[in-house]
Specification:
The protein is mainly α and about 425 residues long. It has helices at about 1-15, 35-50, 55-75, 80-100, 110-135, 140-215, 225-350, 370-405, 410-420, and strands at about 355-360, 360-365. Helix 1 (about 1-15) packs across helix 6 (about 140-215) and helix 3 (about 55-75) packs antiparallel against helix 4.
Length: about 425
Amino acid sequence: MKKLTTLSILLISLAFIAPVQVSAATNAGVKPGSFFYFFDTTFENVGLFFTFNPEKKAQKALEYADERLAEIEAVAEEKNPNGVKTAIANYESNIALATEKSKEVKDRGQAETLLNSIADNNSRNQEVLASVLIKVPEEAKEAITQAIEASRKGQEEATKQIAELKSEIEQLKQEVAELKKESNNPQANEVEKLKKQVEELKKKQDTTQSTQKQPVPTSQIVKPNVDNSSAIQAEVQRQAEAFFKAKQEQDALIAQQKAESDRQERIEATKKQQAIDRANEEAKDAQLRVDAQKQQAQEKLEEENKLVAKIESQITSYLQKLETQILEIKQKIAIDEAIARSAASSASKSTTGCQGTKTSNGCVLNSPTISFNVGSAVNGSILAQLVERKNTMNAIQGRLKESGSNGITENDKKFLISFGISW
């Protein structure tokens, strides 16, 4: 922690002293905290997964690291410490992946170019992070400091790998030169040796022939050595044939080696193409599965919407009928009450002592109060049932709108079916 604090002080000082404001090379897209940020990073990871070339994968990881750096700057301005930590975690992951994949690049020249790019990228990123450090809240400063430290280590690692790579390249060059020298020397020496032998044999032959042509005293004349001259010519012929045969064998060996090298290259190219084709097929199959799932989800949603609309329409129609019935019952109750009040008033005004209707046959007793009470009680009970049914229907309709068919219980279904609402 003490080391991190010291580094933080140095970086803050650098941020105040630096005359030029350094920013990320890429603009921030979707920022941490956004609903779409998860999908953004997920699509990036899928793209990295299906990138099989180590150099291209490392380059993609560097591009995504630049985007994470831009996101760090953006959320730092918004004082969002959690967003800063999320972006930093993704930034460190991208830098680590780029460094790891750079080690798998077989072409030395491409590997050196890639490592130089990683080193430059880390150097620039340290300056950007240093300028961000003074803007973020205290709870995010430690994460920024760790990111700077990780970027510095990444730069050192890339620089170290560049030095090792250059050393390997020089060593390989020396080995190739030595191999060429060793492969050329035996043949050159053999050819030179054969040439010398041919020249010596020719000289011997010329010397013999000139000696035979010189006049000598009769006493010194001897029979020419015909066998020796023929042997020299035969030796010259043999040496020449051996030379041309060795040359033909060497040319055949070189041609055979080249053919084998071409065959291996074709095999490797075929394997790579097959791997690419398999990856493309897998990606295509995955996309087809995703599309099928989307289609199924869309069809299910449409069916759900149709079902909900159908049930809502039936409930609405039934509620309208229910309102009409409730209104009719209320009107009946009001009429019964008016008749009862009228009858009671007539009875109270009678002075004949008859508690009813006076006729030619005498006094007929009326019972309007009893009739009203019975009719009112029946209508009141019916009204209460209708109101309760209405409230239940409204509650079911509310759950249907809020949660769809999933909000309807088995009891709700039975209740709706009992009143003619099909499910």
